[in-house]
Design goal:
It comes from Larkinella insperata. 69% of the residues lie in helices and 3% in strands. By secondary structure, the protein is mainly alpha-helical. It has a three-stranded antiparallel sheet, covered by helices on one side. Strand 2 (104-110) and strand 3 form a beta hairpin. Helix 16 (358-382) packs antiparallel against helix 17 (400-425). It is globular and about 75 Å long.
């Protein structure tokens, strides 16, 4: 019998593919707009500019996509832990042989190009988690399996933070979305939300008020509990929860002042009060908001952004690429980009739910969580709602590592999904 594997590419999800192409094309145009100068008027295809280099990255990405679609879908399941191990080794190697760029030793430099292993660690981690959770007896309600998953996530995260790349490390928190979908008790996401909320509130509200609010909330829960349920155990649980929240509030100052590095402290201070250091740490956010706000409803027009042309916003073709969209295309253009991302995320989740194997479903939800986290943080920091932690906007920001990693992540999933469609067609 002749194998039908070569025809499996016909089963690729074309909706997702078209959304991907739209994102990459729009990203390329905005990278060009971010580096365009009226004086030089360089071409879109000038390889000496970021736009030309991005086009080269797009070309190599096409080759990677073809390779992914040709490789048998079982490769990703079979070699998941091997790929994970390779990414861990690359994170270790970059600590020794990596180049220091902007204070972060997380890059391998090859002439004029650089590769960041942290971007590909997300792929390795997603595959390893999918492979482990796919084991028949794995149950995320069990502490043992929770610890194994936590270890798989923590290992690359620790190595990334060791290279002083905080933003990339925080992305690994996105895996909690997938874990919750696969059975992780809801108490864990709830604890994470409470900790983050208390951390933010402590920065903007006097501690005394928070202590009073926590005690009042504990008493309210106690008295609202029916008498027959007021057991000693319940009282202890409420007391421990309230005490834990008080300790978190009390420890925020120590964490900010004694654990975080000076530049990280400044980013948090600027998030709370952008006017605290308008010419220093607050410069990026202030100029980003000015650029986006100046675009108003319809924008200033393609290549007409003044904030962009005069380099007011640093890193505008990478971390702050959304500024170019807001300034030149306005609220309407920004809404179109956000809507495009929403459709892409919804499509990935929809396909993940349709998967016939747990491996493919887990991987799909990991992909959705990673992309969602990047979008939320990148756009949030650009408009002043999130701290500036330096992570790219998927498929839009300039950079080969980012484009390669997101494209590989997406097309591995599309390859797994094409197998599902192929089996259904039979």
């Amino acid at each position: 019998m002749v194998s039908r594997e070569p025809q499996i590419t016909q089963n690729i999800d074309w909706v997702t593919l078209l959304l991907y192409i739209a994102c990459v094309f729009m990203g390329w145009l905005n990278v060009y707009a971010a580096v365009y100068s009226p004086e030089t008027q360089t071409s879109l295809f000038d390889l000496s500019t970021n736009a030309g280099k991005q086009l080269m990255w797009i070309g190599t990405t096409v080759l990677l996509i073809i390779a992914i679609l040709v490789i048998n879908y079982r490769f990703w399941d079979t070699f998941a832990f091997v790929i994970y191990g390779i990414t861990i080794l690359s994170l270790l190697l970059v600590l020794v042989a990596g180049s220091n760029i902007n204070g972060s030793r997380s890059w391998f430099k090859f002439g004029a190009f650089s590769i960041q292993p942290a971007e590909f660690a997300k792929l390795g981690t997603a595959l390893a988690l999918a492979r482990y959770i796919d084991y028949p007896n794995v149950n995320l309600t069990k502490l043992k399996d929770q610890l194994w998953c936590a270890g798989i996530i923590a290992l690359p995260a620790v190595l990334i933070i060791a290279s002083n790349e905080t933003g990339s490390m925080l992305v690994f928190a996105s895996f909690i979305i997938m874990l919750y979908r696969e059975g992780l008790p809801g108490i864990y996401p709830l604890i994470a939300i409470v900790v983050v909320t208390l951390f933010i509130l402590t920065l903007i509200v006097p501690k005394l008020y928070l202590f009073i609010a926590i005690l009042a909330l504990g008493l309210l829960i106690f008295f609202m509990t029916p008498r027959y349920q007021r057991s000693v155990q319940n009282v202890i649980v409420i007391g421990v929860a309230a005490l834990s929240m008080i300790l978190i509030v009390a420890g925020v100052d120590f964490f900010v002042n004694d654990v975080l590095q000076p530049h990280q402290q400044n980013r948090i201070k600027v998030l709370i009060n952008p006017a605290a250091d308008p010419l220093g740490a607050g410069w990026n956010v202030t100029q980003a908001k000015i650029a986006i706000g100046s675009g108003r409803l319809q924008g200033k027009g393609f290549l007409e952004g003044t904030q962009t042309k005069f380099d007011f916003v640093p890193e505008q073709s990478t971390d702050f690429i959304f500024c170019t969209i807001g300034e030149e295309h306005g609220f309407i253009g920004s809404l179109i980009v956000v809507t495009l991302f929403v459709f892409l995320l919804c499509r990935i989740v929809l396909l993940a739910e349709k998967q016939r194997t747990r491996f493919a479903r887990v991987y799909g939800y990991s992909l959705a969580g990673i992309i969602f986290f990047h979008i939320m943080i990148n756009i949030g920091m650009t408009i002043g709602l999130m701290p500036v932690i330096g992570i790219p906007l998927p498929f839009f920001s300039y950079g080969g590592s980012s484009l390669w990693s997101f494209s590989i992540l997406l097309f591995v999933f599309l390859k797994l999904d094409s197998r599902r469609v192929g089996l259904f067609a039979r």
